[in-house]
Amino acid sequence: MSRLYFLVAGFSFSAVAESIASFPKGWETWPVVKLSETLPADTVLPPDASLFIQEAVEAYSWINNGEGSPLTIRVNPKKIEEYKTHGPYSDGPTAVAVSEIPGMIWVTEHLSGFPVYGTYDRQGNDISHTHPSLDPDFCDKCHQTYQEICRNGTCTDLVMKSYSSSGGKQQTNDE
To answer: What residue stretch is flagged as signal peptide (predicted)?
Structure first.
């Protein structure tokens, strides 16, 4: 388990990344809204790929030993209408992105109208501490940086048109 150490006014303490979003029971029955994939480490993106796509590929190319993975996006049935416009969202679990091969589940939940994130295995164990790109702060930073793509905490695939038209495999990190 990786730990971060802080030194504040002569005191040190450690913090372990923990999911903020809760593991949503019954997510397996939520409607599938998108089938996609995380791309392999050897993916060559087209020259006009957006910075969002470049960074997403770089951040998640380690998945499945660099081979990529099918990605299934499911949305809480109570939030389907909100998802169609990418929010604003009511409070509670919103969406999951399931990296099928390693069985990772990225969770987006809304609390007080704000998106929060978490990463779990299929049994509901928090695994956000196992890789820096699974840390909820990493998710939040990316989603905040690319607000033109990640609206209200869920990401769209508007920037993928150039990649799919170039003959590449379509991939987004909707969550």
So the answer is: 1-17
